[in-house]
What does this fold into?
Amino acid sequence: MYKPLRFGLRLAIGLGLTLGASSSGCSLGQSFSQCQIDADCPPGASGQKLYCTADNLCSAGTPAAKLCAEVYPPNPPANAIVIGVLTNIQQGSDALPVLACEQAIDEMNALRVSTGDRQFSLHLCEISATPDDPLKSMKILTRQRGAVAVLGPSSSSYVLSIAPEVVAAQVPIMSQSSTSPAVSDLPSQGLFFRVAPSDNLQGPILANQLPPAPTKFDMIIVNDSYGTGLQQSFFKSTTKQPTVSVNYAELGGTAASLTQQLQAATSQIVNDSPYPNYVIAITNNLTAQVVQNLQSLNISSKIVMSDGAKNQTLLNLSINGSAATKMHLARITGTAPTVDLNNTTGTGAYNQFLSTYQQKWKQSAAVNNYISYAYDAAYAVGIAIAAAGNNVTPASVSSMLLRMNGQTDRITVGATGFLMAKNKVAAGSGITLQGTTGNIRFTTHGDRETGLYEVWSIDTAANVFKSVPAN
It folds into this structure.
């Protein structure tokens, strides 16, 4: 049986798994047992974390038995339809988006009970511990759990790492926040869906944050598919070139080596003389560390960040920060895919979601736009599965998702529109989902056709993000 873990425990486990491993493992020669728990395993030869397997041996990569260890809702019916979730709670900011997926599942399941249909069951896999975990988890979902679709993963690099199994198993995925243009280049049609728009659209908006006149700027990017993809889109939109351009890694080494590399990269910008007027920063999970390292940058320099930086860890710097830190944070602006801030579609879906999310989880969905994207993603997948019927297959889910490409029928995401959307899609009608993030339509590859964008900043007095629509 899979033991459900609630939200608070997830965070506690995430903190526990990031601690250094103990070196007090048992001697294999004496007992044929190296460990009883993960903490018994010393670091591997290259410093990577080792894990205790079911046969009490220390091994690289999380043991399969410890992946996909949560099911939501707990104790689902035996005939529940399995939807996989690939999530990064321990090292990233997926905790609140996962709650949005769970809320959507609860809302849809309540309606499916009333119509006598099979309920949905989320099988959640934490994939952040080692580089092997995303692909291993995807194989568990497709080959052992019978998932007909998978929500996530949140990062583009994770999407690329699981691509071979997505193609081999022909199980569609729906990422809430993968934005790299490289995802559009993956070969299979109708398998790699995402509600987040491609960074081909964000690049020009990020470039527009620089003034038209010539200006000195430096750039720092995370060296992965997200960072390089957005950087390429940025340079397609401007002839301006940075004076200093550095990159850093977030994966592939020990915590100490990654910290040292990041310090070396940010030092080049801090020590650039004369100082830059702007710094363009494309960051992700190590956003807080990048921002802290840039605090000694000349206060006249403005910092422009991208969507990966807009998360709770950045807000925590303001919540816990000194007056000097708050002054530093006040010079930061950023761009990001946004929600339907002005309810321009007339649906009010975003405001309704904010209210129900707060009531259900006692948390604000406004702290991270990708919480709303996760809600829309779960509904898109749920509608497709429902339209495919109780004998659903991955191929039929993919087919139904591709019917979300119409211009005439517009149906609001949420409980009130779920059954109507199901019936329209099942009948072959192309629809537009009017989501919390605006109109959702998919291309034949699975990309979102259009997207809404914002320019955000930090209110250091209220410790919240402020946003205005991007021009």
User: Anything to note?
Assistant: The chain has a mean pLDDT of 89.
